[in-house]
Write a structure and sequence with these properties.
Elements (H helix, E strand, L loop, with lengths): L5 E4 L6 H15 L4 E6 L4 E2 L16 E2 L3 H13 L3 E7 L3 H10 L6 E5 L7 H9 L3 E5 L21 H10 L3 H11 L3 E2 L6 H7 L9 H8 L27
Parallel strand pairs: 1-2, 2-5, 5-6, 6-7, 7-8
Antiparallel strand pairs: 3-4
Helix pairs in contact: 1-2, 5-6
């Protein structure tokens, strides 16, 4: 069985002189010679050092002002060397992508973003399609196990309209949500550590959603972002602070 291996460059390694070392460390840890895909995890950089979430005495995240354009320039030679087959980004808004495209010599192949019926990313998807960038949908099931969830938060897997579609098709709500992304032309990466659920997540290729089903599910969009990255609010490259898409 072939594996497609993706990893990400974390926020504390954006400084150009740290990029190569971060990638080489990942290759060493995975015991591979190259990655199929390497992503900038977030556009905003954190203070360089040992902590993944460096904080000051008050507990506030310490930022770095490294420009993601400079980070990308440091990644491009690594792709040309064959250490990574393709490069991409994650959590970039359309303005950040447009800015990157103006200077990049290697175009990002994907933008991995939170995407589900409550945040269907239709505007960002349209922008990416214009530039041959594929959306990769993370949290497609609504991140039900996110530790910062609050009582009363909507639960996609409990949505009665989705349950009705799933019951009619003889599928689970999770399978409908995964198929929703496939039918929209997105890559979809549901998270699971349970063997039975992983197997169930693959049982999505024997049906398709009708146009009526897709239109109904699309209508659920309410800009319901579940991964707002509030710890980075105030950073000049925070992708969601001003409701950008």
């Amino acid at each position: 069985m072939d594996l497609f291996i993706t990893s990400k460059l974390w926020n504390t390694f954006h400084r150009p002189d740290l990029v190569r070392g971060a990638l080489l460390k990942t290759l060493e840890q995975l015991n591979v010679d190259y990655l199929d895909l390497y992503l900038i995890h977030w556009p905003q950089a954190y203070k360089e050092g040992g902590e993944l979430f460096p904080t000051d005495e008050s507990g506030k995240i310490q930022f770095s002002d490294v420009d993601y354009l400079d980070t990308w320039k440091a990644l491009e030679p690594l792709q040309k060397e064959g250490l990574v087959k393709s490069l991409g980004v994650s959590n970039f808004n359309s303005k950040q992508l447009a800015r990157l495209l103006q200077s990049a010599t290697v175009k990002p192949v994907t933008n991995q973003v939170e995407c589900h019926p409550y945040l269907n990313q239709s505007r960002l998807k349209s922008f990416c399609a214009q530039h041959d960038i594929v959306i990769t949908a993370y949290s497609p099931l609504g991140s039900p196990d996110r530790p910062w969830a609050k009582p009363g938060d909507p639960q996609l897997l409990e949505d009665e309209k989705l349950k009705a579609i799933a019951d009619r098709l003889g599928k689970t709500v999770a399978q409908v949500l995964i198929r929703y992304q496939i039918d929209r032309g997105n890559i979809v990466i549901p998270k699971s550590v349970t063997k039975s659920r992983i197997a169930s997540n693959f049982e999505v290729f024997d049906f398709k959603l009708s146009k009526e089903d897709l239109d109904l599910i699309n209508s659920f969009d309410c800009n319901g972002r579940l991964v707002p990255m509030t710890a980075s609010l105030g950073h000049k490259y925070h992708p969601f602070e001003n409701d950008e898409f």
